[in-house]
Design brief:
Shape: elongated
Distance between the termini: 81 Å
Helix content: 10-25%
CATH class of the domain at 402-497: Mainly Beta
Oligomer: single chain
Largest sheet: 7 strands, antiparallel
């Protein structure tokens, strides 16, 4: 006897499946958010606020008519066809051998969005770089000449201004910090110069670092972003801008579902300063320290438990950090009430803070937390080379002392080593004169000529002091020792295991 076939609709099948296997642990069906039925209403509301940006640039090139084109056929000298082909390929006419100057106009396309009815428009700085003329094309195909209000190369953001007889439809900023991975997002732009185009996807990841600048903190999306989308907005489902579409990862140049957007939490204050500041520049906070990553070995030597924070490698003379009492070897754990989980988070947190603000900084120093109050300075566009050169004086005559430890051959500072490694006359510390192959020291990049200034956060000036610090760390049960290493004026911390020869 055969059983009758059972046919279920999709909804009934899903209901039956849930009834049989149950929902995943922690998933409440009442809180599940269904996907949107469509984006048409939202797109219709937002499209008028998104603009196309066309730029032109005049490029001049010189060439000599005597120089043959790369495509010129190889002909026997004196051939009747030689002059014919030369004229055909080089277009030299009657110019003889004088250099010709040719000019042509290069055109590029990008996207932008209106943030103020008065005509302020946001885009990427790379969209308008070196442009001689910028034209903004509104949704109704109105062409308007635009001027650059201000630009910030570090975040790749620029603000343009157009003049109209009537207010323009502007968008509002949203909170990118509130956006969650998996949320729906909408991207609108001008891919390949086709005009206003809408694509949808989800927020794929947060806090992406693509090595494009010092404050990388990109949102990642799988919404299609192609050439020409740069500078366009990324919207949440409330129609608020939570990102500026800036870059894609693609071997072919087209979208493969990995696009990146500057988060609104970073972009909004930058745009506000470019518009409001009298000099139309961004004024960033400055802490005045050089930092490095806290590795697992460094965390162990400092008693941190796990890698976190930003390790202060050096402190600028007369900088805000020095005035507040920050020291090399401190690990910055929090800044202005915000946790610093990774080293790369600190520069962005500092830069986003207004100049002259007094902030609370918590540091890990000698196995306990210390709280400092720091009044931030202003970060200059170029590095300040204001540190005074060290005073030169006579160096003491040292007898050569050398030891082998940690995969290193170490020596006291001598005049011979100063001359050999171009060390300063007042150099202090222990000199690395040899590094064992395949050792941990070699893997960490230590080289002959490096100067070890501290061991286990204590100053060392002789090999005897260095040996004593190593012995003390071994006796206390430490697995690694933290060294402060100077190379050509640059300082960094290196943790080396104590169990290597």
């Amino acid at each position: 006897m055969s059983l009758p076939s059972l046919r279920l609709g999709r909804g009934a099948f899903v209901a039956l499946l849930v009834m049989l296997v149950g929902l995943p642990a922690g998933l409440d069906p009442a809180k599940a958010h269904p996907g949107p039925d469509g984006f048409a209403d939202l797109a219709a509301r937002l499209l008028p606020s998104v603009v196309n940006i066309s730029t032109t640039q005049t490029i001049k090139s010189e060439h000599s008519s005597e120089q043959a084109s790369p495509d010129l056929p190889q002909l026997p000298p004196g051939s009747p066809f030689e002059e014919f082909f030369k004229n055909f390929f080089n277009h030299n006419g009657d110019h003889g051998s004088q250099p010709d100057t040719e000019s042509h106009r290069a055109t590029s396309l990008g996207s932008g969005f209106i943030v103020d009815p008065a005509g302020y428009i946001v885009t990427n700085n790379h969209v308008i770089t070196d442009a001689d003329q910028i034209t903004v094309i509104l949704h109704d195909n109105t062409n308007l000449k635009a001027t650059v209000v201000g630009r910030d190369t570090k975040t790749d953001i620029a603000v343009l201004k157009v003049t109209t007889k009537h207010p323009l439809p502007a968008v509002t900023w949203g909170d990118s910090e509130a956006a969650r991975v998996g949320d729906w997002v909408l991207a609108i732009g001008n891919p390949f110069g086709l005009g206003g185009t809408v694509t949808a996807g989800i927020l794929s990841a947060r806090q992406r670092d693509i090595n494009s600048g010092p404050y990388d903190d990109y949102l990642q999306t799988d919404a299609s972003i192609n050439r020409g989308n740069s500078g366009g907005p990324m919207f949440n489902m409330a129609g608020q801008v939570i990102g500026i579409n800036t870059a894609i990862y693609s071997p072919s140049g087209g979208s493969i579902g990995i696009g990146f957007a500057i988060p609104s939490s970073l972009a909004k204050p930058v745009v506000a300063e470019l518009i409001d500041e009298p000099d139309h520049t961004v004024h960033r906070g400055w802490l005045g320290v050089r930092i490095q990553e806290v590795t697992g070995e460094i965390a162990e030597t400092l008693g941190l438990g796990k890698p976190r924070g930003a390790l202060v490698a050096s402190v600028n003379d007369k900088g805000p950090g020095q005035a507040a009492g920050l020291e090399p070897g401190d690990v910055i754990l929090t800044f202005d009430g915000k946790p610093v989980d990774e080293m790369r988070e600190l520069p962005r947190l500092v830069a986003e803070t207004r100049v002259d603000k007094v902030v609370t900084v918590t540091v890990w120093r000698k196995r306990h937390e210390v709280t400092l109050q720091v009044k931030l300075g202003r970060l200059q566009e170029t590095e300040q080379a204001s540190a005074e050169a060290p005073a030169k004086g006579k160096s003491p005559k040292n007898e050569t002392q050398s030891v082998t430890a940690l995969g290193l051959t170490l020596s006291d500072v001598t005049q011979e080593l100063k001359d050999k490694f171009s060390l300063a006359d007042d150099a202090k510390g222990v000199v690395v004169v040899g590094v064992a192959k395949n050792s941990g020291a070699a893997e960490k990049g230590l080289k002959p000529g490096d100067l070890i200034m501290e061991a286990a956060q204590e100053e060392v000036q002789t090999t005897a002091q260095m040996t004593a610090r190593i012995a003390a760390e071994k006796k206390s049960g430490r697995k690694s020792i933290l060294l402060l290493v100077q190379r050509q004026g640059d300082l960094r911390f290196v943790a080396l295991r104590l169990d290597q020869g």
